[in-house]
Design a protein that fits this description.
The complex is a heterodimer of chains A (about 280) and B (about 220). With about 280 residues, chain A is mostly helical. In chain A, about 70% of the residues lie in helices and about 0% in strands. Chain B has 7 helices and 9 strands. Chain B has a 6-stranded mixed beta sheet, with helices on both faces. The chains are: A mainly alpha (about 280), B alpha/beta (about 220). The interface of A and B includes residues 15, 16, 115 and 277 of A.
Chain lengths: ~280, ~220
C-alpha cells in the first residue's frame, strides 16, 4: 500500500483485509448513504415531497389504529396509567418496524444485484440501508403522531425520551437481526417470503404491542419476557409513560440476545453474497 | 501492482465439483495491458470477478495496490430499474467522485442525451454498454477491467472507446477479456490463455493465439 498515490486512495477497498479499519468505515458510510438516497428515490420518486410518504404512511396506520382502540376498545379503568391512544401509538408503530424491516430486506439483495458489481457494495450495506430507512421512517412516524396527539391534548410528551429511544433502538435492532436471517433463507428459497408474512403476523402477540407484561397472569409473564421485543417495548413505554406503568425488562438480556443474533445474522449475510455472485 | 498467488475457485455443479480457477498466478503492473483469452465458459469472467474483488477465491491471496474498476461488461455495474442519471449519481456517490464531473463526462461519451432520464431497462445493449463504459472512464481508476464490453458496441462506440483507452489513457493498466482476438492483438503487451482452469502466460501475442487456436481443435 506504500506506493499508493493519494488521489487514488479513496477508491481503494480491499475485501481481503488490506485497508485500515477507518478507511473501510468511511467507504461503508459513503455506500450506505448512496444506497439510502437511491432507495428513497426509487420508492417515492425524486420530485417534490414524495419522500414524506416514508413516514406519513406509518403515521396514518398508527393514527388509524389509535382511533380504533380509543373508540372500540375504550378506556380500561384497570390500566388508567396509560392513555389508550398513547398505548396504541407505541404498540402499533413498533409492530410496523417488526414487520417492515423483514419485508424490505427480502428484496434488498435480489432487487439490487447489479449494484454488487461494485466491490465496495456489500450485502450487509444493502440490508443495513433498507433497515435504517424503515427504522427512521417508523420512528419519525412515532414522534410525529406523538406530537399531533399531544397538541390535541390526548397524550403528554414522553417523560424520559432517551429511555424511550433506547427501547425503540433495541426493538429495531432485534427486528433487523431477525430480518437478516429471513433474508438469508429467502436467498435460498423464495418460498420464505410467503412463510415470513405468516410468521411476522402470528408473532404479533410476542411483540408486546397490545399489553403490558404486568397485566398478564403471573404464569405467562416469565414466558413473555423471553421475547426481546417485549423487553424493548416495556423499556420504551417506561420512557413514555413513566415508572408508574410497572414495566419489566432486562437491558443485559436485550444486549446479549441482540449481539448474539447480530453475529449469526452477519455470518448468514456474508454467505448470501457468495451464492449470489456465483450463481 | 495487482498480484494473484495460488488462487483457486471451485463451483458446485450437478456432476460434482468443477475447478474453474486452478492455481492461478498473475501479476499486473502499473500501465500494463493484459489480455485474457479463453473459449466460452472457460472461466474468464470468474477470473475477472476474482481480480476485481467481487467474488472471493476459495483459496490463495490477492494483493491490490492500484485502484481497480468494476468488471465492465454488457450490463454489469448499472442497475436496470434505475434511470441512467440515478446510476450516475449512485456510482459517483459510492466512489466518492463529484457527481457533476462524472455526469458531464458520461453524457459526452455515452451520447445518451435525454435517455439518461429513462430506466436502464429500456436501453439497448449498446446503450447499456456505453453507459457502463462511460461511468468507468469518468471514475479515475488506475486499472480498468473490461469484460467483452466492445462486443455489443457499434463501430462508433468501438472507435471512441479505442481513443479513450489508447490515446487519452494510455498510461493506465488494463485487463481485457475476450474470446475474439481483434482488440487484444492491438492493445495488449501480455496475453494469458485460460484453459481448463489453468492460466498460460505469453509475452508474445501471436504465440498466445497459436496456442489458443490449438486448444480449440481438441
Amino acid at each position: 500500500m506504500t506506493r499508493l498515490a493519494s488521489s487514488t486512495q479513496q477508491f481503494e477497498s480491499q475485501p481481503f483485509g488490506q485497508t485500515t479499519f477507518f478507511g473501510s468505515l468511511q467507504i461503508q458510510l459513503r455506500v450506505v448513504k448512496a444506497l439510502i438516497k437511491r432507495d428513497i428515490h426509487a420508492r417515492f420518486g425524486r420530485e417534490g415531497l414524495g419522500f414524506l410518504w416514508l413516514f406519513l404512511e406509518p403515521a396514518m396506520f398508527t393514527i388509524g389504529v389509535a382511533v380504533i382502540f380509543t373508540f372500540f376498545v375504550g378506556h380500561d379503568s384497570q390500566h388508567s396509567e396509560i392513555p389508550v391512544a398513547g398505548f396504541a401509538l407505541t404498540g402499533y408503530s413498533t409492530i410496523l418496524v417488526w414487520r417492515g424491516i423483514t419485508n424490505r430486506l427480502l428484496g434488498a439483495v435480489s432487487g439490487n444485484k447489479g449494484l454488487l458489481y461494485h466491490r465496495n457494495v456489500k450485502v450487509i450495506d444493502l440490508c443495513f440501508a433498507r433497515a435504517l430507512i424503515e427504522t427512521i421512517a417508523c420512528g419519525t412516524a412515532l414522534v410525529f403522531v406523538t406530537i399531533v396527539f399531544w397538541s390535541l391534548g390526548i397524550v403528554s410528551l414522553p417523560g424520559d425520551p432517551l429511555k424511550a429511544l433506547l427501547g425503540y433502538f433495541f426493538y429495531a435492532w432485534f427486528s433487523f437481526n431477525v430480518a437478516c436471517v429471513f433474508a438469508y433463507l429467502y436467498s435460498a428459497s423464495e418460498v420464505v417470503e410467503r412463510v415470513s408474512h405468516v410468521v411476522l403476523y402470528l408473532t404479533i402477540p410476542l411483540t408486546g404491542g397490545f399489553y403490558m407484561v404486568s397485566w398478564t397472569p403471573d404464569s405467562v409473564q416469565s414466558f413473555l419476557l423471553l421475547s426481546p421485543l417485549v423487553n424493548a417495548i416495556e423499556l420504551l413505554r417506561e420512557g413514555y409513560f413513566g415508572i408508574g406503568v410497572g414495566a419489566q425488562y432486562s437491558i443485559s438480556f436485550l444486549l446479549e440476545v441482540n449481539l448474539t443474533m447480530m453475529l449469526i445474522g452477519l455470518i448468514l449475510l456474508r454467505k448470501i453474497k457468495r451464492q449470489l455472485i456465483d450463481s | 501492482m495487482i498480484k494473484l498467488d495460488n488462487v483457486y475457485k471451485h463451483y458446485e455443479t450437478r456432476r460434482g465439483e468443477r475447478t474453474v480457477l486452478n492455481d492461478i498466478n498473475l501479476q499486473i503492473e502499473r500501465g500494463e495491458k493484459v489480455g485474457i483469452v479463453g473459449r466460452n465458459g472457460a472461466g474468464k469472467s470468474t477470473l475477472v470477478r476474482v481480480i476485481g474483488g467481487i467474488t472471493p477465491p476459495d483459496s490463495g491471496s490477492i494483493t491490490r495496490q492500484m485502484s481497480l474498476s468494476w468488471p465492465i461488461g454488457f450490463d454489469s455495474g448499472v442497475q436496470g430499474s434505475m434511470t441512467g442519471l440515478d446510476n450516475v449519481k449512485f456510482i459517483a456517490g459510492i466512489y466518492g467522485a463529484d457527481v457533476k464531473e462524472v455526469l458531464d463526462l458520461v453524457l459526452d461519451f455515452s451520447e445518451l442525451g435525454r435517455y439518461i432520464r429513462e430506466p436502464v431497462n429500456t436501453y439497448s445493449s449498446g446503450m447499456k454498454a456505453r453507459l457502463g463504459f462511460a461511468l468507468s472512464l469518468a471514475i479515475d481508476f488506475d486499472c480498468m477491467l473490461i469484460d467483452e464490453s466492445f462486443a455489443v458496441g457499434d463501430q462508433r462506440f468501438k472507435e471512441r472507446g479505442h481513443e479513450e483507452l489508447l490515446v487519452k489513457r494510455k498510461h493506465k493498466a488494463m485487463v481485457l477479456v475476450s474470446h475474439e482476438p481483434g482488440m487484444i492483438r492491438e492493445i495488449c503487451d501480455t496475453v494469458y490463455v485460460l484453459v481448463d482452469g489453468h492460466l498460460h502466460h505469453f509475452d508474445d501475442v501471436e504465440q498466445a493465439y497459436l496456442f489458443y487456436t490449438d486448444t480449440l481443435r481438441d
